[in-house]
Amino acid sequence: MIAAGSSEWVEVQMVTASEIQPPLGLRIPLPVGEWLPDETIFSLASRHHVVACNRRGSDTCMQLFGHARVGSKHDVPSRLDTFVARTGGQLGSVEEIVFERTILPLYFPLTSKERMEDIIRTVRDTMTGSLRYPLYMLLNRFSAVHPLKACEQCIDEDVKQFQVAYWHRAHQYPGVWICPTHNRELREITMSIGRSRGYGWSLPRKEHFARASNTCSLASVEPDRTVLLCRLAFAAAALAALTPNVFIEKERAVRTYRNRLIALGMRSTSGELQLSRCVTSVLEAAMPLRSVPELLALPANERQARAYIMRLTWLPVQNMHVLLHLFSIVWLFRNWNCFWDSYLTCTG
C-alpha cells in the first residue's frame, strides 16, 4: 500500500491524473484532473497542493483561485469563476461545484431561491462580506465554525482504492457525526494553531484526530445517542438533497410542527401547549446530543427548552439555525421521512 503524501503516491497521481487546459500560472497542466466520489472542493484543492509539491498554501490559492489568500476555506468556497476558468470547466460549472462539492446545499432549502442565487453570485468572486448572516449560521447560540470530520474506515478504504484519503462531503454537513457508509463515528480533525487559525491545505490523517474528549465518541455511550445521531445525520443528508429545486415554506413548517405536537398530546387543538410535557421531552432528546461540541447549543435547561418550543411554534415565523430544525425533526418525528410526509400533506 502506498502511503498518501509519499513520493511514490505523488508519482502515481501525476501519471494517472487527467491533463486539464488551460495551464496554470506555473505553465503546467493541473495535476489533479478529476473528482473522487463525494469529494469536496477543499479536498481536491488539498490534493492539488500535495501533488504540485507546493511549499506554501498561497501558491495553491494563486494557482487555483487567482489570489494568494482567498479560496482556502474548507467550508465556504470563493472565487469559483476563476477556479472554473483555471480548470477549463472540466471539473464542472460554478453551480455544479456549489451543489455537489460544498456543504452549502444543507442551508439553501431553509432560505429562498432568490437568496440561493444571490449566494451563488457571491461565491463566484472574492467575498466582501460573510455568508454567516444570510444563511442564519449565527442564530440560536450555535457556532458558525464547521469542524472537519473523517471516518477511520473511509480513510483506510480510500487509501486502498484511490491511494489517498480525502474529505467526503457527506461527513462535513453540520449535525453529521456518523458515517453514512460504515455507520461509525466520525472523528474531528484538530485545527492549525497558526496565524490563519484554519486547517490549511490538508488531507485526512489519523494522527490529526482530536482527542476523544474534544470530539464525538460513541464507543462507551448509551445506544440512544447513537440512534439519535444516526437520525440526525440522515435528516441532514435528506435536507441537503432538496437543493436546488425545493425550498421549505417556513409557515408550513411551523404548522407541521404544531400538528405533530397535537398528535403527540403536547398541544391542544385550541393552541394551548402542555409546556411541562414539552420541556421534559425536549430535554430528554437534547441531553444525549449535547455531549457533541457542535450540538452544545441545544436546550440545556427548562428556560432554554421553553424558549425553543415557543420559537418553534410562533407565528410570524422566526428564523432558526439549521441544526435546530434538524433537532426538531428528530425530536418530534424521529426520522426525516415521517417529517417530510407530514410537511407535504400539511394544509392551512
TrEMBL record:
InterPro entries: TniQ
Source superkingdom: Bacteria
Domain TniQ: 36-186
Protein name stated in the entry: TniQ domain-containing protein
